[in-house]
Specification:
Two copies of one chain form a homodimer. Chain A is α+β, with helices and mostly antiparallel strands. Helices cover 20% and strands 36% of the residues of chain A. In chain A, the strands form two sheets. In chain A, strands 1, 2, 3, 4, 5, 6, 7, 8, 9 and 10 form a ten-stranded mixed β-sheet that branches. A three-stranded antiparallel β-sheet of chain A has the order 11-13-12. At the A-B interface, helix 1 and strand 5 of A face helix 1 and strand 5 of B. Chain A binds a DNA duplex through helix 5.
DNA sequence: CTAATAGTGTCTATTAGACAGTATGTT
DNA sequence: AACATACTGTCTAATAGACACTATTAG
């Protein structure tokens, strides 16, 4: 039983901080972007892809598997600060969009020891990356197939391609909250596959009622490109007139146009919020 | 620099888990419910209130201030397990609705030492609480006033009443993400006022597109009562026909009615998802 | 009878979905 | 010319907002 002290000062001076067992914390960064997949027909537009940045592990545990960039937090560092530090180490980016996703605390999620990890989702415009990525880092295009029971995610980075399958387990009816169980995964370390699906769903949700998508766009874009990004994240086709109706309040038409395709040039727009 | 090992087994056997500094983690529970405020006019219905459970601190730091129920997590316990344990200690409830809210990691959020805390929001039907609360615990009705720059939250539990004021600081334009700065608060310990406003906003958001509200309702309720709960959480009046149109797919009409008010009796409904 | 809530009908305004049509570049 | 995309007009369907009206109880 703790002894009681009269004043808070006195209490703090006598406080023994070793009475509760301690643990380590890490930050995992789920960095999303969109990339262009070239088409071989001169008339056709590049296809937009949704991609995630992963790093190949050099050491045990999970040696040679892919994982999200991350690292331990220091004692004089908040989770947000650690996230920013790691982001700066992996990319040359500062002050980009990040949001806290989820804190994962499974006892044996890391075979080394008890580590609790908080994930952050970051959205970047890949074209703003000026430095080349480290050798171990790579952007993977993600294709999501979803049905009632599971997700099947295909990752590919030109050199390699793999599929992971995640089962959906309904844990809560009123909000349709799911738990995710990894059914097939030979390539992604730790519980990071779960973090990826949580992030995709968060993004899918927020893209519908916020302007979050503009964090992944360049300064100028055509409405066709923007629509493709929406489509690839939502996983469905949208009707042109409906899309333009909704988006027109969020963007500003510029004088510039994008030419070069074997078809009518497209007007370039800017995000209004900038 | 870590030595490299051939196999993962060998690596783990030689792993020194003391190389990173460790910290303590706690779980804070934001337990919301609705209560009835009696009216003195026999004709008038009880008014629904939105309320939160808080506990008076017996010890330093923040002695005699109110805080959210919470506690340290054990080394063999996930955050969710710790949350359930604490919930069972505070109330007699098990398996109720909980969701992870936010992980707060400010360096000096606890004057004793570095503590990172993950908050969970729980929704309960107060009438299912059979045991009486411990002496130090109390339900506070919350009234939220919001304008462009700030929130003003009034807490009252019949015996005492206080106001806290929280400034909104827009930190991110695309998703209108705010940071919260406590302007006036003499009664709530730690950063728990911030956690409360985060929880209220999460609930306000989810009530619009999920069935989350039914976690706070009893088994039978009138549509008038249900509408009042929506109104008190959303902070605005709703039109009867519109509300009934939207809610009618989510509920089942029963044979029971609620009589006794000086007006037409009201049909009792059940949640369809049960 | 009256105050208070319960519950419904219907008109209008707004938004979303569908589809057809026109416009204009490059090769 | 032909293809691919850009962009618009308009009809219809679905949804949301507003308001007025009727119904029913305890005192």
């Amino acid at each position: 039983m703790e002894k009681t002290y009269e004043t808070e000062k006195e209490f703090l001076e006598n406080y023994d901080s070793t009475i509760y067992e301690k643990l380590s914390m890490t930050v995992d960064l789920l960095i999303f972007s969109v990339s262009n997949k070239k088409t071989n027909n001169y008339r056709k537009l590049d296809r937009k892809c949704f991609s995630v940045l992963m790093v190949k592990r050099k050491d045990h545990p999970f040696k040679n598997k892919w994982c999200l960039p991350g690292g331990f937090i220091g004692v004089k560092e908040t989770l947000e600060e650690a996230g920013e530090r790691i982001l700066a180490e992996e990319t040359n980016l500062h002050k980009i969009y990040t949001e806290q996703l989820y804190t994962n605390s499974e006892i044996n999620r890391d075979p080394r020891m008890r580590i609790v990890s908080t994930s952050y989702m970051a959205l970047v415009d890949k074209d703003k990356l000026t430095d080349t990525l480290s050798l171990e880092a790579s952007w993977f295009n993600i294709t999501v197939l979803e049905d009632e029971e599971k997700y099947s995610l295909t990752f590919d980075n030109e050199k390699e391609s793999f599929v992971i399958i995640i089962e959906k387990i309904l844990t809560e009816k009123t909000t349709e909250k799911y738990d995710y169980k990894i059914i097939k995964n030979e390539h992604i370390a730790f519980d990071h596959a779960k973090t990826i699906i949580i992030g995709i769903n968060r993004l899918k949700n927020k893209i519908e009622y916020t302007d979050i998508v503009f964090n992944m766009m360049g300064s100028y874009f055509t409405l066709g490109e923007l629509q493709q990004v929406y489509e690839v994240i939502l996983g469905k086709k949208l009707l042109d007139p409906a899309f333009r109706r909704i988006i027109k309040d969020k963007v500003i038409k510029t004088e510039k146009v994008k030419t070069g395709g074997g078809h009518r040039p497209s007007v370039l727009y800017k995000y209004k919020g900038e």
